[in-house]
Amino acid sequence: MPIPPASGSPQDRLPLEPIRVLRPRRTDALAELFKEMEQGTGDLEPVAVPDPRSWDEGETQELPPVRTGHGSAPRGGGRFGFGPGLRRAAVTIAVAAAALVGFGGALLLHDRNDAAAVPEPRPTASAEPTATASASAASDPDGPGTLREGDSGPAVTDLQQRLLRIPDVYAGGSTGGTYDATLKAAVARFQLWYGIRGDETGVYGNDTRAALESRTATG
User: Do residues 187 and 160 touch, judged by C-beta distance below 8 A?
Assistant: First the structure.
């Protein structure tokens, strides 16, 4: 069985209700503010605003042009005419630009005239063979006057005749003045037998010429 609560317990007390605090609004201050605004506007004079639709465009007038110190209107016409200072600056800039363009054109013409006035050097016909001969003589490792296979002339004939005087070197060889393969082999044989090493094998150079002429000199 449930036991009844004892007297004086917290359950016998009445529940607490929420307390609402009401604060009065300060309407007096708001009313005073409106009164001050009404008193302040009482001293102002009301102005009537015209209706925009009743405006007449014909009543508007253009402002007269501004006159300069000389008593004449600006050349540009209208209210946006340029003053004398701007015109002078524009004229100065135009003259400076024209001077720069003219100076640059004069420099270009001067350079072209100088280039056209200097002629290109042309090699003479007489100098070419001399240069070729000297270059070939300097580039020949066997010395000037070297004879090799393919050459012909009196110098080749003299070589053939001298080789015929050396026993078994050019036996039965031709003396027609042509440096052929047979003559090349005879020159190489002479170089090998007599220990000549200064010239290319089969080429009649300075060393081979000196050795052959010393052995075939006429008394």
Answer: no
